[in-house]
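Field guide to reading this record: the first block holds the primary sequence, the second block holds the structure written as discrete tokens, and the final block holds curator observations. Each block starts with its own label. This record concerns Riboflavin biosynthesis protein, catalogued under organism Lentihominibacter hominis.

BLOCK 1 — SEQUENCE
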Amino acid sequence: MKIFNSLEEVNGIQPTVVALGNFDGVHKGHQQIIERTVRSAQDMGLKSAVFTFSNHTRTLLKNLPAVKNILYAEEKAKIIETMGIDYMFNIPFTNDILTMSPEDFIKDILVDKFKIREAYCGFNYSFGYKAKGTPEVLMHEGLKHGFGIHVQEPYKIDNIIVSSTYIRNLIAEGDMERCMKFMGRMYSIGGEVVVGNKLGRTIGFPTSNIMIDETMATPPNGVYITYCTYNGVKYPSVTNVGVKPTVGIYNKNIETHIFNFDRELYGKQIRVEFIKRTREERKFSGIEELSKQIESDCIMAKAYHREKGSL
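BLOCK 2 — STRUCTURE
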């Protein structure tokens, strides 16, 4: 997959079938749009493409709160690439684009730059100045410029429309199982392992700690059954998200105990995939009570991993 990080880079490409949208979670609804785009491009002998913005459109709208990311940029690109897309137009959302009329957006970007022949989008896709561009506008302009438009109806699971907003709410509630159902993959957080307070090592449960990325949607404090991926290998693990109230005052972080693993990971990159929340974080009477609870947490997590055949 070739990634274009600016409109200026888009030159000499072949005609395209383009999936339009933020694709900020590449959830199951997004996946259906992308899959239809790839199939259509193959059938027509064209290149498949995804057009998205490298920053969320709300970043330029000061009257709206910032939106937490569900995926890291490189993770988003990797998922889209595995779906068979040829081109990814990963363009910065600028004031020029913000103030562009829907008609100019279509003519200057979709037609002239992307050589669009077919487009796929969701039922609520909007674009152009004051979001006046709609699927209906795309259909009207498509007739004028000679491209087709296919609009996906709401994609539902359990009679609930799959959306990035709903998935963010699931993450905020710690409902990792339902999050996986709507995303089609486990929610994960990655980062560099940093030095913690080393308490876990002294009580027999060494942990790898990563700091919370404030730009990302994060689950609530608590204990989770997890997988931890290091150097391309996935290990069964148990993870605490929180501030460690029993032992002091700390910023919220993620500390993972990896089963049957004794390597030092300071300075290394890991990724933690969240399977299930088992309890809330709470303050214990002391280290002894905390240690007993951690042992209980590990027993529960190991039982789960054994049942799944990963331990």
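BLOCK 3 — OBSERVATIONS
Residues 287-308 form the longest helix (22 residues).
The longest strand covers residues 269-280.
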